[in-house]
């Protein structure tokens, strides 16, 4: 079983990004578990002074990230940048040892929102995350008029989401395979 943790960079109740992540969870095959972390709005603003005595919400978040085999992030673009909630959530992961080397898929719901997508990827690379490109796709939902069930019922979108999930699964399971020496050990 591959365990994915999904993060939405939007706190809006009617968020397209959150809707996409709920559809992703519904489309996940039985050997992939997708948990959506809903507590980003409860995280305090990043403050290094809190590192010594982390608030309970941060401890819960850190445990969820540490338990996940990979992350899946869907975040909108505001003023050509990433949202405050996703940036704050990522700031709380800087220096978290289990995050280094973590596989990440980045979902973009608007083809024209490339500034935030680029910025998010740069931040993730700086933090030593491993962006899985086949799991990082644009799912053009802005203006599509689809709800969660519509995403699930649209073959092209459902197929793209399933391929994204399989790409993350492949990255995780490939890393889990034991290393085999190239030459027999004498």
Please specify the SSE layout and strand pairing:
Layout: E1 2-8, H1 16-27, E2 32-37, H2 56-67, E3 70-74, E4 77-78, E5 81-82, H3 84-91, E6 103-107, H4 114-126, E7 130-131, H5 148-153, H6 155-176
The biggest beta sheet reads: 5 strands, parallel
Name the beta content range. Answer: 15-25%
The beta-strand count equals 7
> What is the count of helical runs?
6
C-alpha-based Rg, rounded: 17 Å
Structural class category:
alpha/beta
Low-confidence stretches: 179-186
Text of the CATH class: Alpha Beta
Q: Helix amount, in percent?
A: 25-40%
Sheet with most strands: strand arrangement: 2-1-3-6-7
Q: Kindly give the count of domains.
A: 1
**Name of the CATH superfamily:** Flavodoxin domain
Calculate the mean pLDDT score and round it. Answer: 94
Q: What's the CATH architecture name?
A: 3-Layer(aba) Sandwich
Distance, first to last CA? 35 Å
Oligomer: single chain
Shape, principal axes of CA atoms:
globular
N-to-C SSE series?
EHEHEEEHEHEHH
CATH topology type: Rossmann fold
């Amino acid at each position: 079983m591959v365990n994915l943790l999904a993060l939405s960079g939007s706190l809006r109740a009617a968020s397209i990004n959150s809707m996409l992540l709920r559809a992703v969870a519904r489309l996940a095959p039985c050997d992939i578990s997708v948990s959506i972390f809903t507590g980003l709005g409860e995280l305090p603003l990043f403050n290094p002074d809190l590192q010594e005595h982390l608030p309970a919400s941060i401890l819960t978040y850190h445990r969820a990230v540490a338990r996940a085999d990979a992350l899946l992030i869907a975040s909108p673009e505001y003023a050509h940048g990433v949202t405050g909630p996703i940036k704050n959530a990522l700031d709380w992961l800087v220096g978290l040892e289990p995050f280094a080397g973590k596989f990440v898929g980045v979902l973009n719901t608007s083809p024209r929102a490339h500034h935030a997508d680029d910025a998010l990827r740069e931040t993730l690379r700086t933090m030593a995350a491993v962006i899985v490109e086949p799991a990082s796709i644009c799912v053009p939902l802005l203006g599509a008029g689809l709800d969660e069930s519509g995403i699930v019922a649209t073959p092209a979108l459902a197929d793209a989401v399933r391929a994204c999930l399989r790409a993350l699964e492949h990255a995780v399971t490939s890393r889990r395979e034991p290393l085999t020496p190239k030459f027999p050990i004498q």
